[in-house]
């Protein structure tokens, strides 16, 4: 499995660099916030398509070939950004990036869950989280070098292609091909409404952050280094929170953990709205903000699995939670673009306060589920990474 982890490290660095740089590039070219949000949303249209149909490619050709196909298309779409300045073409390229990235995530997470024994599953998935946050943090920090537009996309494409080399050089036994299964959101909502709502809101918050946090910082008059430090601090908060939120949710319930995370993030974002803060304090507050929002998807997935009685439906349930996450990710950049165009950088804060407030109210009205036979530890709560 070492080859898989090495490959995904390059993947996460490249994706983080490309996705987080787009807002900076478009804003520096004079694009308004609505256009930036609309183009960013195309990434998540591709993500939605991947959650619905990407598994068909994996079922047909296997995990290793699927990884190579998705990575190659991702690199091609990245390079095409440097050849064209047409925004309609950029929207198509972003859609392709979203489809390929989420397709690779499906390969990675199904591979890890298939190959990891129950006795070491938590450690394997915890290490997966560590790799994600460290690699994505490196990708975000590269933005501080203020590279030219073409250099960003070429470097990102190279990193993505590097991710395929370890899998092709090392003889490795890939997991069994997954079976196709339908998605029934109404049926899953009857089983786990809090899980689906929290997943939807998590998609809005997490991927809205990666799409528009750069614009939020730039509109306050800070430079690209400020963008890099702000996003990196939020990711640091997510990384730190993952080490403790799993045990808290195991002991006190997923509902309590969801309320805790949403509450911490709500208070952090309220400070942005009330006080005029220098960059240092904004980066400091980004740590609890990231710690709150980046844990919500994991808690939603854990809550959904707690409510499921028929374990044969776990694949359908997982894809339903992922679908809601992707759906929220689709709307967030566009809504944020409209709000920030109308209310300036404060529109970013209002959006987060509204989403987090709704999440808190919805969770408070749902029952807490405590089970003595919880098997889910921090690393067992599968994390979806999109910046994303």
From TrEMBL:
Source domain of life is: Bacteria
Q: Which GO terms describe its molecular function?
A: transmembrane transporter activity
* SUPFAM superfamilies membership: MFS general substrate transporter (SSF103473)
Which regions span the lipid bilayer? 31-52, 64-84, 90-112, 124-145, 151-170, 191-217, 229-249, 256-273, 279-300, 321-339, 345-364
Xref: CDD domains: MFS_YcaD_like (cd17477)
An example of a Gene Ontology cellular component annotation for this protein is: plasma membrane
Where does it mainly reside?
Answer: membrane
User: Pfam families of this UniProt entry?
Assistant: MFS_1
Tell me yes or no: is Transit peptide among this UniProt entry's keywords. no
What the entry lists under InterPro entries is as follows: MFS, MFS_dom, MFS_trans_sf, MFS_YcaD-like
Q: Which Gene3D superfamilies match?
A: MFS general substrate transporter like domains
Q: Which residues form the Major facilitator superfamily (MFS) profile domain?
A: 1-374
- How does the record say this protein sits in the membrane? Multi-pass membrane protein
Alphabetical keyword list: Cell membrane, Membrane, Transmembrane, Transmembrane helix, Transport
Q: Where in the cell is it found?
A: Cell membrane
Entry keyword annotation includes Oxidoreductase? no
> What is the name of the protein in this document?
MFS transporter
């Amino acid at each position: 499995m070492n080859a898989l982890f090495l490959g995904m490290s390059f993947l996460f660095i490249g994706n983080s660099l490309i996705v987080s740089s787009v807002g900076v590039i478009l804003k520096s070219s004079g694009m308004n916030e609505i256009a930036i949000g609309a183009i960013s949303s195309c990434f998540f249209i591709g993500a939605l398509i991947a959650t619905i149909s990407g598994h068909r490619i994996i079922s047909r050709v296997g995990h290793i070939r699927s990884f190579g196909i998705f990575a190659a298309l991702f690199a091609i779409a990245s390079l095409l950004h440097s050849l064209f300045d047409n925004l309609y073409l950029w929207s198509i390229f972003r859609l392709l990036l979203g489809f390929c990235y989420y397709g690779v995530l499906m390969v990675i997470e199904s591979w890890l869950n298939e190959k990891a024994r129950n006795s070491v599953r938590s450690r394997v998935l915890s290490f997966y989280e560590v790799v994600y946050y460290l690699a994505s943090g490196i990708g975000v920090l590269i933005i501080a070098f203020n590279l030219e537009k073409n250099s960003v996309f070429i470097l990102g494409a190279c990193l993505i292609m590097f991710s395929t080399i370890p899998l092709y050089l090392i003889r490795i036994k890939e997991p069994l091909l997954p079976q196709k299964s339908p998605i029934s959101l109404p049926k899953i909502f009857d089983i786990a409404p809090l899980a689906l709502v929290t997943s939807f809101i998590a998609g809005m918050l997490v991927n809205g952050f990666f799409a528009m946090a750069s614009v939020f910082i730039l509109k306050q008059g800070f430079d690209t280094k400020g963008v890099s430090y702000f996003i990196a601090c939020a990711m640091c908060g997510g990384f730190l929170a993952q080490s403790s939120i799993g045990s808290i949710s195991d002991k006190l319930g997923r509902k309590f953990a969801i309320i805790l995370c949403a509450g911490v993030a709500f208070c952090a974002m309220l400070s942005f709205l009330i006080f005029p803060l220098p960059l240092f304090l904004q980066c400091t507050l980004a740590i609890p903000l990231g710690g709150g929002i980046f844990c919500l998807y994991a808690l939603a997935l854990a809550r959904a699995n707690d409510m499921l009685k028929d374990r044969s439906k776990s694949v359908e349930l997982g894809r339903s939670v992922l679908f809601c996450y992707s759906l929220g990710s689709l709307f967030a950049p566009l809504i944020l673009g409209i709000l920030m165009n109308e209310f300036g950088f404060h529109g970013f804060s209002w959006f987060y306060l509204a989403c987090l407030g709704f999440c808190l109210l919805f969770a408070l009205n749902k029952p807490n589920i405590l089970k003595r036979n919880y098997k889910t530890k921090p690393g067992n709560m599968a994390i979806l990474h999109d910046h994303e």
